[in-house]
C-alpha cells in the first residue's frame, strides 16, 4: 500500500479520498495493523487500474529472501538471526525491513569503494578513482542494476510509442525526425547519427532488426530522458568525466531496454515463459544479449523477479560487461575460472549450455551460457564473437525452463571467484596461487596441481 501510494505521488489523505475511507485506516493498513480487505482491493483496482497480483504474498517473500541474504553477510555472522525472525520483521515492520535493505546497499557501495582504494594503494586490482569502468560497475551494482524512475518513465513512453505505431512513426510525429537507413560507407563508422540540420536520424543499414530497434530506442532515451539520466548520474558522484560519460551511456542503454521490453509486460512474460531467453527475445524483437541484460533489472519493489548476475567475456577471457542484480560474490572480481562453461561455449556457437556451480564457501548457483556476436551484416565486415552468462542462486533454478532438462546434480562443478581468491587445494586448472598462502617447495616433491601450498 505504501509503495503504491508513493509511486502514484499521493498523500494518505488523497488516497483515502479516492478510496472513500478514512486517512487513519490507510495509515493502519500501511503499518500492517489492519488487513487489506477484498473491498479495499476492488476500490484500489477501480481507482488506480492496478493488478491484484501486485498485492500477493510474493512481495513479502521476495523482501524476506533479500533480508535473509543481507543477514548472511559476514559482518552478522556472530548474530544468530533465525529465518522466522526475519519473516516476522518483514511482515510486522515492512518499513524497517526496507530501511535495512537500503542501509545495506549503501554499506556495500562504500565497502566496494574502500576495497578498490586499498587495492589501488598496493598496486593490485582496479582502483575506482583511476578506472571509470570499475566506478560505473560499483554504481550499477550498489543499486542492483535497477533505476525505478527511469524504468517507470520508459514504460510509459513505450505505451506512447505503441500508440504511435512504432519507433519510426513516433520519431516523425513527436520529434519531426525522419529515420533513414544508409550503407556503412555513407555512415563512415557510425551505427547511429542524429542530424538536426536535416531533421534526420541515420541508421547503419547492416544492423539486424534487434540492433536497429535498440539504437532507435537509445536515441529516443537521450531525447526524452536526458535530464532524468543526468540526475541519476549525479547520484554516482563520479570523479572523472570518463566515468560520468560511461554511466550516462549505461543508463541510456538501460532506458532503451526498458522501452523495448516494458517492465510489467516483460516481467509477466518472463514468468510465463519460465525465463526462456530465446523465446522472450523473439517476443520483444530483441537480441539474446539484450534480453539477458534486461532480466538483470527486474527488481521493482513489490514486483521483483529472479535476481540474476550477467557477464560477457571474449575468447581471451577479457570481461567487457558485468551486471549484478543479485548480490553475487563473484560480481566484483569474478569471471575468470576456467571450469565455468562461459569460457568454453565458443566450442559450441549459439548453443545454450547450462551448469550447476558451487563456490568454495558452499554457495550454489545455476548458469546459462551462450555465444553472441556483434558486427558483421555484410560480406567482409568484421564480426566479434563473445560469450554471455546469466546466473542465479540455486534455489531459483526450478523456475527456469533450462533446469527441466538439466536437473540438479549430486555434485555441482566447483569453481572459484578468481584463482587469487580461491583456496581449493586440489584444483588442476589453477593459474596462480591464492593470496595469503605459502607455496610449497618442489625440491623433493612435485604435486599434481600447478601450485602446491600449505593448508594453513
Automatic annotation (TrEMBL):
Residues 1-55 form the HTH cro/C1-type domain. Gene3D superfamilies: lambda repressor-like DNA-binding domains. GO terms for molecular function: DNA binding; DNA-binding transcription factor activity. Keywords: DNA-binding, Transcription, Transcription regulation. InterPro entries: Cro/C1-type_HTH (IPR001387), HTH_RamB (IPR026281), IrrE_HExxH (IPR010359), Lambda_DNA-bd_dom_sf (IPR010982), ScfR_C (IPR018653), TransReg_Diox_bact_type (IPR050807). Pfam families: HTH_3, Peptidase_M78, ScfRs. GO terms for cellular component: cytosol. Belongs to the short-chain fatty acyl-CoA assimilation regulator (ScfR) family. This is HTH cro/C1-type domain-containing protein. It comes from Allorhizobium borbori.
Amino acid at each position: 500500500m505504501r509503495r503504491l501510494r508513493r509511486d502514484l505521488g499521493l498523500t494518505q489523505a488523497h488516497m483515502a479520498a479516492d478510496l472513500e475511507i478514512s486517512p487513519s485506516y490507510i495509515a493502519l493498513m500501511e503499518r500492517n495493523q489492519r488487513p487489506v480487505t477484498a473491498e479495499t482491493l476492488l476500490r484500489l483496482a477501480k481507482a488506480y487500474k492496478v493488478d491484484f497480483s501486485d498485492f500477493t504474498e510474493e512481495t513479502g517473500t521476495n523482501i524476506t529472501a533479500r533480508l535473509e541474504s543481507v543477514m548472511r553477510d559476514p559482518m552478522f555472522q556472530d548474530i544468530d538471526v533465525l529465518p522466522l525472525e526475519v519473516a516476522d520483521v518483514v511482515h510486522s515492520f515492512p518499513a524497517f525491513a526496507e530501511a535495512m535493505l537500503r542501509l545495506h546497499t549503501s554499506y556495500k557501495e562504500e565497502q566496494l569503494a574502500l576495497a578498490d582504494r586499498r587495492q589501488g594503494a598496493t598496486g593490485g586490482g582496479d582502483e575506482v578513482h583511476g578506472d571509470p569502468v570499475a566506478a560505473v560497475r560499483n554504481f550499477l551494482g550498489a543499486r542492483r542494476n535497477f533505476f525505478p524512475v527511469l524504468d517507470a518513465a520508459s514504460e510509459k513512453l513505450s505505451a506512447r510509442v505503441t500508440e504511435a505505431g512504432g519507433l519510426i512513426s513516433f520519431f516523425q510525429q513527436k520529434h519531426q525526425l525522419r529515420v533513414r537507413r544508409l550503407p556503412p560507407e555513407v555512415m563512415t563508422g557510425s551505427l547511429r547519427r542524429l542530424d538536426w540540420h536535416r531533421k534526420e536520424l541515420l541508421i547503419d543499414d547492416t544492423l539486424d532488426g534487434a540492433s536497429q530497434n535498440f539504437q532507435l530506442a537509445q536515441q529516443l532515451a537521450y531525447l526524452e530522458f536526458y535530464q532524468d539520466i543526468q540526475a541519476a548520474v549525479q547520484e554516482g558522484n563520479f570523479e572523472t568525466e570518463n566515468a560520468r560519460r560511461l554511466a550516462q551511456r549505461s543508463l541510456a542503454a538501460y532506458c532503451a531496454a526498458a522501452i523495448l521490453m516494458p517492465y510489467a509486460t516483460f516481467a509477466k512474460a518472463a514468468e510465463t515463459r519460465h525465463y526462456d531467453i530465446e523465446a522472450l527475445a523473439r517476443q520483444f524483437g530483441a537480441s539474446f544479449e539484450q534480453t539477458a541484460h534486461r532480466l538483470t533489472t527486474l527488481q521493482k519493489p513489490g514486483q521483483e523477479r529472479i535476481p540474476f548476475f550477467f557477464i560477457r567475456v571474449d575468447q581471451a577471457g577479457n570481461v567487457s560487461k558485468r551486471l549484478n542484480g543479485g548480490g553475487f560474490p563473484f560480481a566484483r572480481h569474478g569471471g575468470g575460472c576456467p571450469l565455468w562453461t562461459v569460457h568454453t561455449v565458443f566450442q559450441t556457437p549459439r548453443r545454450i549450455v547450462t551448469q550447476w556451480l558451487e563456490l568454495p564457501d558452499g554457495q550454489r548457483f545455476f548458469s546459462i551460457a551462450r555465444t553472441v556476436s556483434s558486427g558483421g551484416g555484410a560480406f567482409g565486415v568484421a564480426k566479434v564473437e563473445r560469450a554471455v552468462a546469466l546466473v542465479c542462486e540455486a534455489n531459483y533454478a526450478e523456475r527456469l525452463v533450462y533446469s527441466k532438462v538439466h536437473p540438479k546434480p549430486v555434485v555441482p562443478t566447483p569453481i572459484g571467484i578468481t584463482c587469487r581468491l580461491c583456496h581449493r587445494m586440489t584444483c588442476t586448472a589453477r593459474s596462480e596461487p591464492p593470496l595469503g598462502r605459502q607455496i610449497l617447495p618442489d625440491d623433493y616433491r612435485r604435486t599434481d596441481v600447478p601450485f602446491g601450498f600449505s593448508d594453513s
